[in-house]
Amino acid sequence: MISLASVAAEYRDVDCGETPFPMPKLKEWIPPSATFSIADYGAVKAEGGAKGDVAKTTQAFRDAVAAAVAAGGGRVLVPAGEWPTGPVHLKSDVELHLAEGAVLRFTDDPHAYEPAVPTSWEGVELLNYSPLVYAYGCTNVAITGKGTLAPEMGRWRKWFSRPPEHMAFTAELYRWCSELVPVEERNALAMKGSNARPHLIQFNRSANIVLDGFKIRESPFWTIHLYHSENAVVRNLDVYAHGHNNDGIDVEMTRNVLVERCSFDQGDDAVVVKAGRNQDAWRLARPSENIVVRDCTIVDGHVLLGVGSEMSGGVRNVYMHDCHAKGDVRNIFYMKTNKRRGGFIENIKIKDCSAANARISVVGIETDVLYQWRNLPTYEERVTRIRGITAENLVCEGSADHMLMLYGDPADPIDTVTLRNVRLGKARKERIVCVNANNVTLDGVAVPSRPGRSPAR
What is the value of pTM for the model shown? Predict the structure, then answer.
């Protein structure tokens, strides 16, 4: 792992408030004042009917970042206006600042994101198209300002459907992971039709990350991905992305994170904690831990807080509070895994959160979630240990199938789940479902006089 501190850098303390676990002190990097405008390095914006110049602006970003690095760090400024561009690769001690009125319009030409870089696809490491904004092995790196990241989506939307060639790629990716094929040999671009869409933002093996104030309008794949990193502050973001796999923020194999005062409007889960897939995650052996999410609004999304299903490295010490969905969700608080994952989920708490309606559950845990990989061979079985799950002061005024839905694994049942003051207006099916779960406590929870039986699975 790279160094957490730079001798010359300045930091401020970040208060994460009271947490149900010892939360390490976060340090927020303060970028140097030196400014390097992409306009001074040949960037061409779209104006007066002109389309701009993707190649020149992409090169301008490279040159401005290099100049900031040579100066010992600084701010790469995107002035107001629309700037068509290819990928933006950040370096240590560099802040990408989007001025108010600035729009980065990322091309949807996949070739612009070549050559392949080390990244991941749904919990498995590989070489793939560059994320649109990418930092690898960086210390002190930031994206700030009131501007907007807005990729063109025409080509990426055509890839949402996951045609047979793409599904063949995912099967091969699963084999690469299961057989521990060296990452440098896992090149998605060498497979015709792999169509593995890039992340919008990925910080990979980086530290001291700041994301503050900007807007996102659409994304090819996962929107914000903090991967194998640490010490991150994410605040005041306005995120909208309604395509396939458009999670809002995925915190994966990453520790010491604060997410606050953000708005998520997603085509998939809003806030997700992950920790890699199967053999790849066992190889890396890096849990996601010490994560606080507070004061966020979910305009739309499948879940407020999700854990998994890529969580083989383990997830622990996660606390969400004072977050609210304006509309309906599938689950308010949902954890998912399967017998191939292993790992653990422990000490997860959600408090003072709400949604109008939930399609499935207020609180749910499932241990047999395999999606389209169900028909692929099982190389090794490892059951996930699930312990210490708490939901307090959750409100779903409308309806859900279940208030509580627990489907544990008989080989290692879920243990110690506490619901305290959880309210559901109407349960469309069995209100409480507990299968292979021990030490379930319901405190101040309305339960029907006749205990509900588990529906057939």
Answer: 0.96
Domains within the chain, CATH numbers bracketed: 12-235 (2.160.20.10), 269-457 (2.160.20.10)
CB atoms within 10 A of CB 8: 10
CB-CB contact of 266 with 223 (8 Å):
yes
Strands 423-427 and 385-400: parallel
pLDDT tens track for 148-159: 999 999 999 999
Give CA–CA dist 39/185, Å, rounded: 38
How many Å apart are CA 320 and CA 312, to the nearest integer?
Answer: 21
Q: Using an 8 Å Cβ cutoff, are 173 and 125 in contact?
A: no
Nearest to 29 by CA among 130, 136, 144: 144
Please write down the HEC assignment for all residues of the chain: CCCCCCCCCEEEEECCCCCCCCCCCEEEEECCCCEEEHHHHCCCCECCCCCCCHHHHHHHHHHHHHHHHHCCCEEEEECCEEEEECCEECCCCEEEEECCCEEEEECCCHHHHCCCEEEEECCEEEEECCCCEEEECCEEEEEEECCEECCCCHHHHHHCCCCHHHHHHHHHHHHHHHCCCCHHHCEHHHCCCCCCCCCCEEEECCEEEEEECCEEECCCCCCEEEECCEEEEEECCEEEECCCCCCCEEEECCEEEEEECCEEEECCCCEEEECECHHHHHHHCCCEEEEEEECCEEEECCEEEEECCCECCCEEEEEEECCEECCEEEEEEEEECCCCCCCEEEEEEEEEEEECEEEEEEEEEECCCCHHHCCCCCCCCCCCEEEEEEEEEEEEEEEECEEEEEECECCECEEEEEEECCEEEEECCCCEEEECEEEEEEECCCCCCCCCCCCCC
Distance CA 334, CA 301 (A): 12
Distance CA 388, CA 368 (A): 20
Contact 315, 345 (CB under 8 A): yes
184 CB-contact burial (10 Å; exposed 0-12 / middle 13-18 / buried 19+): exposed
Q: Does 67 score more than 90 pLDDT?
A: yes
301-329 confidence digits (pLDDT tens)? 999 999 999 999 999 999 999 999 998 99
The CA-atom distances, in angstroms, between 446 and each of 137, 352, 425, 452 are 50, 17, 10, 12
What's residue 457's pLDDT? Answer: 30
What whole-number distance in Å separates Cα of residue 112 and Cα of residue 130? 9
Q: Are 132 and 201 in contact (CB under 8 A)?
A: yes
Strand partners, 17: none
Please give the Cα distance from 413 to 389 (Å, whole number): 13
Cα–Cα dist 389/427, whole Å: 21
Contacts of 7 (CB under 8 A, 6+ apart): none
